[in-house]
Amino acid sequence: MTVIIVCDITLSGLDKEPEFQRVNVKVKIAHVAEVVTLDNNRKLQNVTVADESGTAMVTLWQNDVGKVVTGKTYIIENLMVKCYRGEWSLTSPKSGIVIRETESLPEVVEVSAQNNNIGTLKNARIIGVRNLQCYRLCPMCKNGKMDAKTQEQYPDIGACVECSSPGLISACELHMSSQLAVMSNNIQSVESVGASVVSKTLGVVVRD
């Protein structure tokens, strides 16, 4: 039996969490995008959220689509941490999420473009690397990891763990993420980074 650990976070700590970590957040809805229907009829909706510490993008899937309203505040449980091209976001996993409207946050950060962590690492010294992962991204939703089927006859055929879209794994874009232990101003911290930061700081490049 697999035990999934879920932790409460603020949005400023999103890039400190390992990718695929399950988290709970209390956020105000800043913007709700139009619903998008993929070729396999699965629906997704991107939502911009904010709390007292930062902002983030949340991707809602299927039964979770349409459940939030701009300007309202919610506690959202069981979201999954994702990183795509250095941008950290949240998504609803296949197991679904719990959305509960709650009292308004007294003050939230104004929504603005997110950086990709490179700035926070410029003056830091890397003292360790852990959880270096390489995997294939789904070409349909650009959000999920391609998982190989167990058919020995077709070892290159897989499906997205998020939207279930099938595809050739070797044809999907390679993605990489890692956690860097860094030292800056005598303070040690762990930074979760995407492929662009790993390449710039470690010189590691993923190639087919």
CATH structural architecture of the largest domain: Beta Barrel
Provide the CATH top-level class of the largest domain.
Mainly Beta
Query: Strand fraction band?
Result: 35-45%
- Cα distance spanning the termini: 34 Å
Order of helices and strands: EEEEEEEEHEEEEEEH
The largest sheet has its strands arranged as 2-4-5-7-6
What low-confidence regions span 5 or more consecutive residues with pLDDT below 50? Answer: 112-122, 204-208
What summary fits the major beta sheet? 5 strands, mixed, barrel
Helix content: under 10%
Number of helices: 2
Instruction: Report Rg.
Output: 18 Å
Q: What are the salient characteristics of this protein?
A:
2 domains; globular; mainly beta; disordered C terminus; 208 residues; OB fold (Dihydrolipoamide Acetyltransferase, E2P); three-stranded antiparallel sheet
Describe this structure in words.
There is one protein chain. It is built from two helices and 14 strands, in the order E-E-E-E-E-E-E-E-H-E-E-E-E-E-E-H. The chain is mainly beta. The chain folds into two domains: 6-101, OB fold (Dihydrolipoamide Acetyltransferase, E2P), CATH 2.40.50.140; 118-202, no CATH class. The chain has a five-stranded mixed beta barrel. Strands 9-13-14 form a three-stranded antiparallel β-sheet. Strands 10-11-12 form a three-stranded antiparallel β-sheet, with no helix packed on it. The chain is globular, with a radius of gyration of 18 Å.
Topology of this structure?
Elements (H helix, E strand, L loop, with lengths): L5 E3 L13 E11 L3 E2 L5 E8 L4 E7 L11 E12 L2 E5 L6 E4 L16 H4 L3 E12 L9 E3 L8 E4 L5 E3 L5 E11 L2 E8 H8 L6
Parallel strand pairs: 1-2, 5-7
Antiparallel strand pairs: 2-4, 2-6, 3-4, 4-5, 6-7, 6-8, 9-13, 10-11, 11-12, 13-14
